[in-house]
Design a protein that fits this description.
Distance between the termini: 13 Å
Bound molecules: the ligand Nc1nc2c(c(=O)[nH]1)N[C@H]1C(S)=C(S)[C@@H](COP(=O)(O)O)O[C@H]1N2, molybdenum atom
Strand order of the largest sheet: 2-1-10-5-6
Order of helices and strands: HHHHEEHEEHEEHEEEE
Strand content: 25-35%
CATH class: Alpha Beta
Number of helices: 7
C-alpha cells in the first residue's frame, strides 16, 4: 500500500513538476486569463485530474495512523482567526447560533445546527495532512461523513460538484470581500474518509483549525480542506463560483485536483 502510494506520487510528480514548479514566482501572470502560462497550467491541471482519477479507484483509503504517531498539535495555517463579523458573533456564543446550510442541486435544501451534526453517526480517523508549502502533521479528526449529510438533502442527478463556502475573508476585491471557498467532485465527497470534522485530537475543533466545522479530504492536499464552513452548495459546474476555477487558491493558479 505504502509502496504503491509512493510510486504513484513519484510518477505524478514527474509528470506535473514542469508545469507547477514556476508557480511560486509567477502569480502575476496568472491574473491574465489568456496568458500562455495559464494555458499550460490549465492543460496540466485537467491532465493531472484525469490521470489521477484513473489511478485512484473511488474506494481507495488514505493511510491511517495510530495515536502514538501524533507527534505535535495540528499546525494552524492560512486563516487562523476569521475577523468577519458574522463569524465573530457566532464564536462569541460558542457557535450556538451556527447553521450549516446545504443548497443548490438538492431536492431538500437543509439547515443543520451543530447539535444535529454531532448527533449523526461519526467517524474518527488519524491521518496525515500535507500542506503544499511542504510540511505535514498527523492528527486525529472526528466528524460526520459528508455522504450522510448529502443523503439527507437528496442530491439531484445533475449535480457534479460540492462547493464549500467559508466565513473567512482572504482579501478585498473590487466588488467586495473575497472569501475562501473550495470544491470537490461527488466521488471525493462520498469517499468514506471525507468528513465534516468538529473534533481534533479528542477536543472540540479549535478556532485556529476551522471551528465549528471543516472538511477533511484525505487524498488531497491541505488547501482543499476548507475550514470555517458556512454553506455547502451542490452544482453542475464550478464556473459560477469565485473566478471559476473551483477554489480560492485554484483561482490563483493551484491545481483543482490536488491528489497526493
Ligand atoms: N477557510 C479556510 N480554509 C482553509 C485555509 C484558509 O486559509 N481558510 N487554508 C488551507 C490550507 S493552505 C491548509 S494547509 C489547511 C490548514 O489547516 P489547519 O489550520 O488545520 O492546519 O487549511 C486549508 N483550509
Ligand atoms: Mo496548505
Amino acid at each position: 500500500m505504502t509502496r504503491l502510494t509512493l510510486s504513484r506520487r513519484r510518477f505524478l510528480t514527474g509528470a506535473t513538476v514542469a508545469a507547477t514548479a514556476p508557480l511560486a514566482g509567477c502569480f502575476d501572470s496568472l491574473g491574465d486569463r489568456q496568458s500562455a502560462v495559464r494555458g499550460v497550467l490549465e492543460t496540466a491541471n485537467s491532465l493531472t485530474y484525469r490521470v489521477q482519477r484513473m489511478l485512484l479507484s473511488s474506494d481507495d483509503l488514505a493511510r491511517e495512523y495510530v495515536e502514538s504517531e501524533i507527534r505535535q498539535p495540528q499546525r494552524p495555517n492560512g486563516t487562523t482567526s476569521p475577523r468577519d463579523a458574522a463569524y465573530q458573533d457566532l464564536a462569541a456564543s460558542d457557535f450556538r447560533g451556527y447553521r450549516l446550510t446545504i443548497g443548490g442541486l438538492v431536492e431538500m435544501p437543509r439547515e443543520f445546527g451543530l447539535d444535529e451534526i454531532r448527533a449523526m453517526p461519526s467517524r474518527t480517523q488519524i491521518t496525515r495532512h500535507d500542506c503544499v508549502e511542504g510540511w505535514s502533521c498527523i492528527a486525529k479528526w472526528t466528524g460526520v461523513p459528508l455522504a450522510l449529510v448529502l443523503d439527507q438533502a437528496k442530491v439531484q442527478p445533475e449535480a457534479r460538484f460540492v462547493v464549500f463556502e467559508c466565513f473567512d475573508t482572504m482579501e478585498t476585491g473590487f466588488t467586495g470581500p473575497i472569501r475562501y471557498y473550495e470544491s470537490i467532485d461527488l466521488r471525493d465527497a462520498r469517499h468514506p474518509q471525507t468528513i465534516l470534522a468538529y473534533g481534533l485530537n479528542g477536543q472540540a475543533l479549535p478556532v485556529a483549525n476551522g471551528a465549528p466545522l471543516r472538511v477533511r479530504i484525505e487524498r488531497q492536499l491541505g488547501y482543499k480542506m476548507a475550514k470555517y464552513i458556512r454553506s455547502i452548495t451542490l452544482a453542475s459546474d464550478i464556473a459560477a463560483f469565485g473566478e471559476g476555477n473551483g477554489g480560492y487558491w485554484e483561482d490563483r493558479g493551484y491545481e483543482w485536483f490536488a491528489g497526493i
